[in-house]
Structures are given as C-alpha cells and as structure tokens.
Design goal:
- The complex is a heterodimer of chains A (312) and B (305).
- Chain A is built from 14 helices and no strands.
- Chain A has 312 residues and is mainly alpha-helical.
- Among the domains of chain A are: 45 residues; 166 residues, Orthogonal Bundle (MetI-like fold), CATH 1.10.3720.
- Chain A is globular, with a radius of gyration of 27 Å.
- Chain B is of the alpha/beta class.
- Chain B has a domain of 202 residues: Rossmann fold.
- In chain B, helix 4 crosses helix 6, helix 6 runs parallel beside helix 7 and helix 8 packs across helix 10.
- The chains are: A mainly alpha (312), B alpha/beta (305).
- Chains A and B meet through helix 8, helix 9, helix 12 and helix 13 of A and strand 7, helix 3 and helix 4 of B.
C-alpha cells in the first residue's frame, strides 16, 4: 500500500504530511520513554542524565508559574527585536546604497567580510568590555552579529535586479533617484525581506548564546533559565526550554512569512492585504503631496487628440 | 588588425534596377547634403568597439552612417534587419543613450539635431524581454512614466486607462492585474502602452515580438501599425524576421555582420493592409526572397573568411 510513496518526488497531501510528522514525534517520544522507563535504578539512562517524559512535563507548571516563562520569553524576544531592528535600520539602507553604487560596496567590503566570517561567539568578551554587562551588551551583540549579513544580503538583492529594468525606467524618463526608489528597491524588497526573515531565525539562536554567557545574578531570558537550571536544577526545565525555543521560533517565522506573502502577493502568492494597506498609505501621501510639490498638468504631454495636436 | 575585414558586397546594385516586389533598393542610405530641418536621427561614421586596445576588443558596429529625416506629423517606420550579432541592438541602444553601448567610440549620434547624452523619455524603448515592473499593476506600469514626471494620480490614471484600452486590453478586467498574471502578448501590450503614453518622438523597438507565437505576433503587428499612425512618431524596429520587417517598414536597413555595417537600404510599401493579407501577396514574397538571398550571401561570405 505504501509503494506509491516511493515514486520519485511524489507530492503528499497536507494531512499525509502531518501524519508523517506526527509519526516522527511519536518515534522520538517512544525512544525517550523506552530509555527512561521503570524504576530509577533499572533505567537505560539514569534520571541524572535524562529524566523521563512524565517527569519532564510534570515540572511545566513550575516553569510557567514560579520561573515566569512568559516574562523570560518576552525578555529574550525584546533583546532580539531591538538588536535585530537596529541592525535592519542600519544594514538595509546601507546595503541598498552598496547595491546601487559598487564603489560603496567596495568601501564596505572589509566590514562585511569581517562581520560574516568572524565566529560570533568570539565577539562576546569584546561586547562585555565595550557595552558592560547589562541589556545594552546583549542588544549590541545581536546587532554586531547580524548587521554584516543584512548589509551584504541587501546589496546582493539590489545587484540581482536585472539591468533591463533600469534601462526601461531610464527610457521612460525616470531620474536616477526615481530608478532607485520606484524600481530597484521595490523589485529587490521581496528578496531583502526573505533574507531578513531567515536571519531573524539566526538572531534568535544568537540571543541564547548571549544569555548563556553572563556575569552575576538573574539577567532574565530563556538562555538564563537554561544556565540556571544547569547549575541549580531542576534539569527537566532545560529540556522544556529546548522544546519551547523551536516552537517560538517557528511561530515567529510563520508570522513573518505571512507578512511576506501579504506584502508581496506578486512574488509569494498571498492575498495582498498588507500590500493594499501600504498602497493606501502611499495614495494618502500622494494626495497631500501637492502641499510640497506642484503636480505636472497632464496637458504637458501631447496626446493623440486633434485639437491638442494643432495647439502644440 | 591585419586582415581589416572588408565590407562584404555580394553584388553591386544598379540604382535603376527598378522595384523588387513591394520594395525599391537603394545601394547605401544616401546622406543628403542639405537638410530642411534637423533630422530625427543622424549617425555620422559611428563605430563602437568594446574593450578597445585590449586583446578581447570587439567591434560591434563600424562606420555606420545614416540620416532619418523628420517627416512632419507622420514619422517613419524604419526596420533594421540583419544576421544575428551584426550590431542591430547596438544601433538602437546608441539612439536610446543606454550604457554600455552609449557613448560611441568614434563618430557622432545626433537626435533632433542634438548629440545624445543619455536616456530620456523622448526616445521610448520596448524590449524583447518582458520588462514590466513585477510589483506594479498593469495600470501602475502603464502610468510609470507619468508618475516620474509628477502627473497627479487622477490625471495619470484616466490617461492610463485610455491607453490600456487602446492597446487592446480590457480595462475592467486587466487594470489591477500584476504582470505575472498576463500572457507574453499582453505583457508586450502593456510595454507598448507604457512607452506610447509618453508620446515619444522616437520609438525604439528591440525585437519586441521575438518571443511571441506567430499568431499573436501578427495581431501585434497590426496593432502596432494602427497605434503608430495615431502617435506620429519615428519608429526604429529591430527584428530577425524578414516578413516582419518588410510588412511593417517604410524603410528597411540591412546590416552585415561582425563588425556591423549598414549595407542596403530599401524603401518598402507602407503597411496599409492587414498583415495576413499583405504577406500572402506574390510581390511581398518576392521582396522577402530577395532579402533572404542577400542575407544568406552575407552569412556565407562571413563563413568563408
């Protein structure tokens, strides 16, 4: 009955895919259960190495209520969001300029090569001496870890827009600034957003690293829960946090992917709700632009109507 | 350069040879000594060499000279024909002022009496590749040039809808579609509307129908002829297809290859009847056969070198 699944590249229905994924989860749980069932002395793995599933999930209320899981998750997310937001605010505009003007790209090449090739963990000691041991250090660590990737990805996205779009825009009378703002940036933006989404996942991984290395007492965050549980227990909480992290990461990624689809329906096939929202904002801006810029009358462009032809 | 490739001249042309089919052959485009006003386009001994002075130097066109005169309120339809790699597109992009073809290595390219300094909306261009802006709807694509000039949203959308209609698209159905929802023929209609809405004096078309199937292609040819009469511009139309050139052109330039030089000019009867009908006529076929033989001779003389 399963022979059909072995046809090359055979697609599976969504519910079949779900069943297979559940099968994987159940297998992992089963192995976990087999390795840790029975009396503590007779287990394959002793409870100090790996607690049983039941023991692990039984400590969840304690993690949730006594150790303020939500607050700590939000603390981690806040750090990533601030650090990553700062890196985006700096990296994307610079990257766009680098993509438009190769001399700028050459200027920033050392920064971007250094930033992308340095093992980020090696930056932690430096960030402590530069930014202290508080929130700022963690935010700046995320910023430094991400900004070079964001810059070079944005520059590449701009550079990948085909020359023929630039040629077309120029022959339609666009000025250089208009080619950048109306053609290059909008055409590259889906790629830029996509790489931002993937890099955000990376940044979420880095924040754990930043939280695991700490001086002094409670600094909050999921990484802090892990390292404290490692030192003082309960060990079950390490496992729970390890399960929670991918779930949170997946939820964020899907959320961003939804935004991406709705912003760029022409590229990712969403229904375009956000795209229309942005459009409405732009129309609004244009409606009040006359206060700043005088619009060109349409009569300035000769049209094939006999009366106008004679007039011009 | 030791061999100094001589211009292949398959056979000398007798100026009084009389018409060939629907056309008349002129040996080389004559450069009139005196002109009434500034010509629409003027090439004077234009040569374009890439990587000049380096081992990989490549001359795309050599010593091309021609003049297209301004025919008041009508404009001319000039087709540029030649074997592949003969620099047809180079000529077009030099007129448009697009890099890297612009500027010419030597010689002078003038449009309406002024040297070309860069691209501008007075020389609209339609490319073979689909160049609709993917993030813009049909209406916003068509009105792109007006938007760049600062025409208000209402004005440009009114005009944009007129032009969507004029190129044979359905305003109600198509105006808010994105380019990826359109067929190749519809995309080229958008590209044509987007260019013509700006009423350029010169329209440059680089094999715009090259990627279309024969049926769509004929429809587009008829559409183009109709629109061109309305906008009264000079059209430069580069194509591989001899039938297309003879049908559309008032004038056909035949180029030889590598390095490209302008070899023949032909005056052709205007496209005053539908494409399907005109292309069936024996006189039309005769002209096509003549040009086909000429181009194969060029290809052979090149292969013999």
């Amino acid at each position: 009955m399963f022979s059909g699944f072995f046809r090359l590249r055979r697609e599976v229905a969504w519910w079949q895919g779900l069943l297979f994924a559940l099968g994987c989860l159940l297998t992992v749980l089963g192995v976990w259960w087999l390795a840790t069932h029975g009396e503590p002395e007779q287990r394959l793995l002793s409870p100090t190495v790996l607690p049983s599933p039941h023991e692990t999930f039984a400590t969840f209320p304690e993690l949730w209520f006594d150790r303020a899981l939500t607050r700590n998750t939000l603390a981690s997310l806040r750090r990533v969001a601030l650090g990553f937001g700062l890196a985006t605010a700096v990296g994307v505009p610079l990257g766009i300029l680098c993509g438009c003007f190769p001399f700028l790209r050459a200027f920033f090449a050392p920064v971007s090569i250094f930033g992308r090739n340095i093992p980020v963990a090696a930056l932690i000691p430096l960030t402590f001496s530069l930014f202290g041991i508080g929130e700022l250090q963690k935010i700046m660590f995320i910023f430094i870890a991400c900004v070079a990737f964001i810059l070079s990805d944005s520059a590449r996205a701009i550079a990948e827009v085909h020359d023929r779009y630039i040629d077309t825009a120029y022959t339609l009378g666009a000025a250089r600034r208009q080619v950048i703002l109306k053609v290059l940036v909008p055409l590259a933006f889906p790629s830029i957003f996509n790489s931002l989404r993937l890099l955000f996942g990376l940044a979420f991984g880095y924040i754990m690293l930043a939280e695991l290395v700490k001086f002094g007492g409670e600094s909050g965050g999921l990484g802090d829960i892990i390292i404290t549980s490692q030192r003082r227990g309960p060990k079950e909480h390490i496992l729970l946090v390890l399960i929670i992290i991918p779930i949170v990461a997946l939820a964020i990624d899907r959320g961003l992917f939804w935004i991406q689809r709705e912003l760029f329906p022409h590229r990712y096939g969403g229904s375009g709700i956000l795209n229309r929202a942005v459009h409405v904002l732009l129309v609004g801006w244009e409606r009040f632009k006359f206060l700043l810029v005088k619009p060109t009358p349409v009569a300035a462009i000769r049209q094939p109507t006999p009366s106008q032809e004679k007039a011009s | 350069m030791t061999q100094g490739t001589p211009t292949p001249t398959p056979q000398p042309v007798d100026p009084d040879a009389g018409p060939i089919g629907v056309s008349r052959v002129i040996d080389h485009p004559p450069i009139p000594a005196k002109l009434a006003g500034p010509p629409v386009v003027e090439f004077r001994n234009v040569t374009k060499t890439y990587n000049a002075g380096r081992p990989n130097a490549h001359t795309a066109i050599r010593d091309v000279s021609f003049v297209v005169q301004d025919i008041k309120d009508v404009g001319e339809f000039v087709c540029v024909l030649g074997p592949s790699g003969c620099g047809k597109s180079t000529v077009l992009r030099l007129i448009a002022g697009l890099e890297p073809q612009h500027p010419a290595t030597t010689g002078e390219v003038q449009v309406l009496g002024r040297p070309v300094t860069g691209a501008g909306a007075d020389r609209g261009m339609v490319f073979q590749d689909y160049t609709s802006f993917d993030h813009r709807t049909v209406l916003d694509n068509v009105t792109f040039g007006l938007e760049c000039r600062g025409v208000s949203r209402k004005d440009r959308h009114d005009l944009g809808r007129q032009w969507i209609q004029r190129v044979g698209l359905n305003v109600d159905v198509d105006q808010y579609k994105y380019p990826h929802e359109l067929s190749g023929g519809m995309r080229q209609r958008v590209a044509i509307a987007r260019t013509l809405i700006l009423r350029p004096r010169i329209i440059l078309m680089d094999e715009p129908f090259g990627a279309l199937d024969p049926h769509t292609r004929m429809n587009m040819q008829d559409l183009l002829v109709t629109l061109w009469r309305e906008v009264e511009a000079t059209v430069f139309f580069v194509t591989h297809s001899i039938e297309e050139a003879v049908y559309l052109g008032d004038r056909v330039y035949i180029m030889s290859n590598s390095p490209g030089t302008l070899l023949r000019e032909m005056e052709v009867e205007p496209a005053n009847r539908p494409s399907r009908q005109m292309q069936r006529e024996p006189r039309f076929q005769e002209t096509v056969a003549y040009i086909r033989d000429l181009i194969s001779e060029l290809e052979e003389s090149r292969a013999a070198e």
